[in-house]
Specification:
The chain is an alpha+beta fold and 344 residues long. It has helices spanning 140-147, 188-196, 235-247, 256-264, 306-315, 317-329, and strands spanning 27-31, 38-42, 55-59, 62-63, 67-72, 78-88, 91-97, 107-110, 115-123, 128-135, 174-176, 200-206, 229-233, 251-254, 266-267, 272-273, 276-280, 295-299, 340-343. Strand 5 and strand 6 (78-88) form a beta hairpin. The longest helix is centred in the C-terminal third of the chain and has 13 residues, at 235-247.
Length: 344
């Protein structure tokens, strides 16, 4: 297995720059793993593929306005800081641009000084910085909400008129720097219909981090180091999923982040999903044995990405690469604001 096995040509014209309105009007490719059959539908037609007793599991994390634009305290030079993860009180792991010039002890000012940042340490493993923030009044998070911008992926070059379109309709706690984009296609009305037909809705949390955008650069993907992400599987979700497996009903994951949370919480000895919270560095590659997920709703992912590798592990690399070729030929919209795929 080589990283090149997960490469494909992605014309820039296929990268969606704007979300579809309404959310559930995007296209849906349905891929059947056993037969290899591919069907082309609208996302709202997903109802036709769900059955009473299924458990639909979503990632309810919410995106923090984590992109901060400031200036060096001494020189006034422009600085951009992206909040990645809170390590402890008001101290965050961050990406900083330009990072090389900001050594420990440097200060950055945001707005008119209502928020300041002190570079505490250089994080050699990630190339980021440990940054301590101070708000002149109120909390640091309140200041971030006033000053921060939505951290859209780098391949989206247009401003988003409504920041809520980069949030799922069921989002809750703000912990992520990227949206769990497979869930962006659901409307509240569609979810109500899902539950009316007897499908159970369950929720997990996984804080989406920078690996969402980061391609694998190693020739051998097994040499790639995937960053840890915080996840939580609450007791009710574990019970709902385990009951469905016991009944012979399906567990349908909305998004690769949901897959990662569920499979991280799976105990191979008991064959049960455990209610748990912690850090996961689970890297799902072809050959992985899925213990929980029976079907997957996902978007179209970047070439050479860990997400494309995960989807290939679930459905088979050859089938997925053929489906991507078909999607490109049919002018499907790719990446975060793009169309969807249902893998059965």
């Amino acid at each position: 297995m080589r990283t090149d096995d997960f490469d494909y040509d992605l014309p820039s014209g296929l990268i969606a720059q704007d979300p579809v309105e309404p959310r559930d009007a995007c296209r849906l490719m349905v891929v059947e793993r056993t037969s290899g059959q591919v069907d082309h539908r609208a996302f709202r037609d997903v109802l036709e593929y769900l059955r009473p007793g299924d458990v639909l599991v979503v990632n309810e994390t919410r995106v923090l306005p984590a992109r901060l634009l400031g200036a060096k305290d001494e020189s006034g030079g422009a600085v951009e800081i992206l909040l990645l993860r809170c390590r402890y009180a008001d101290t965050w792991e961050c990406l900083v641009k330009p990072g090389r010039r900001l050594k420990p002890g440097a200060r950055v000012v945001f707005g008119d000084g209502e928020l300041t940042a002190l570079i505490v340490d250089i994080l050699e493993e990630s190339g980021g910085r440990l940054v301590q923030f101070h708000a002149r009044t109120g909390s640091v998070i309140d200041a971030v909400h006033r000053l921060g911008q939505m951290p859209l992926p780098p391949y989206i070059t247009r401003q988003l008129a409504d920041p809520e379109r980069y949030q799922t309709v069921y989002s809750a706690e703000e912990h992520s720097v990227a949206a769990p984009t497979a869930g962006l296609h659901f409307t509240s009305e569609l979810l109500d219909e899902v539950q009316r037909m007897g499908v159970h809705l369950a929720k997990v949390e996984l804080d989406v981090g920078l690996d969402t955008f980061r391609p694998v650069t190693e020739d051998d993907p097994e040499e790639h180091r995937i960053h840890t992400e915080h996840y939580r599987v609450p007791p009710w979700t574990a019970e709902s999923v385990n009951a469905a497996k016991a009944r012979g009903d399906r567990v349908i994951a909305v998004g690769t982040t949901t897959v990662r949370a569920l499979e991280s919480a799976y105990n191979e000895q008991t064959r049960l999903v455990e209610a748990t919270e912690g850090q996961t560095d689970l890297f799902i590659l072809p050959g992985f044995s899925f213990g929980v997920v029976d079907a997957l709703i996902t978007n179209y992912h970047m070439p050479r990405s860990t997400l494309l590798m995960m989807v290939s592990a679930f459905a088979g690399r050859e089938l997925i690469m053929r489906a991507y070729q078909t999607a490109a030929a049919e002018k499907y919209r790719f990446l975060s604001f793009g169309d969807a795929m249902l893998i059965l």
